[in-house]
Amino acid sequence: MHRDHAEAVHEHDRGLSYDLPVLARRRMIRLMAGAGLIPLVGCTSDEETSASSTATSSAHGASPSATAECATIPDETAGPFPGDGSNGVNVLKESGVVRSDITKSFGDSAGGTAEGVPLTVTLTVVDAASGCGTPKKGAAVYIWHCDRDGDYSLYSEGVTDENYLRGVQETDDKGQVTFTSIFPGCYTGRWPHIHFEVYGSLADATAATSITNTSQLAFPKDVCDTVYATDGYDQSVTNLAELSLETDGIFSDGYEQQLAAMKGSVADGYTATLTVPV
Q1: What's the rounded Cα separation, in Å, for the pair 84 and 210?
Q2: What totals of helices (H) and strands (E) does the chain contain, helices first?
């Protein structure tokens, strides 16, 4: 990974010094909830929760409603490479950013394509206040992540003219957005992840205003190990060996709501699904 990229990650994307207020707030909420001082949002019964867990669980990951009782998705740092205008470049106002296939660059960029194991990402945005039972139709989700080499388009040396692995979509009647992408690499100091921002509407997203939630999706270790054993992910093997979800600067204080449910294979591609209560 390029030196500038590694330094930026160390400064901004580890979540240790720059995001202590967010992490402290999350820990305080959990402590208060554990002491019975505040209720977590949710209205499902034990039987409904059990049924939901059985119906939605897959080979990896867990149903947020089963593990977190409809708590809002944890707030996380957007990192140093959001491309939303908060740190220099703003891709959200460019024509073409609203799309489902984010593997290719668009517009006046270099026109490159991100290579790697195919990955389909489906996020389901739901209303936490209603017990996670009401989909958030008409919201918008912006996702972005690094490429197979651990570099971020628009920022990292060699891909500053590219804008692949970034895209926005409006949620459908089920509160869902689905993106076609590639499995991201693992770069120094961070567990493999995807960044995302939730907006109240597509108009808000393309105007880069009024973000309602910023969080990250994590990948299960066994899937990472399988993917990184393939050609092109060599450096990810070394980087992943130095990390764990429990020691990652972002996920170390709890990742149950952010761990994607995974299905698929290297040959056929993987699908990652996550419910996002907001």
Answers
A1: 11
A2: 7, 9
| Whole-number Å distance between alpha carbons of 219 and 237 | 14
State the maximum Cα–Cα separation within the chain, in Å, rounded to a whole number. 55
CA of 166: how far to CAs of 52, 83, 196, 277, in Å? Answer: 31, 8, 10, 22
Residues in the chain, overall count: 278
Which of 33, 61, 34 has its CA nearest to residue 258?
61
pLDDT category of residue 13 using cuts at 50, 70 and 90: low
Percent of the chain with pLDDT strictly greater than 90: 74
User: CA 87 to CA 237: how far, in whole Å?
Assistant: 30
Helix, strand, coil tally for the chain in percent (to 5): 25, 25, 50
CATH of domain 3-277: 2.60.130.10
Q: How far apart are CA 170 and CA 142, in angstroms?
A: 9
Which residues lie across from 169 on neighbouring strands?
141
What whole-number distance in Å separates Cα of residue 227 and Cα of residue 56? 24
Q: Which of 141, 143, 163 is nearest to 151 (CA)?
A: 163
Does residue 63 surpass a pLDDT of 50?
Answer: no
d(CA 70, CA 133): 9
Question: What are the boundaries of each domain within the chain?
Answer: 3-277
Does the pTM surpass 0.85? The reply is: no
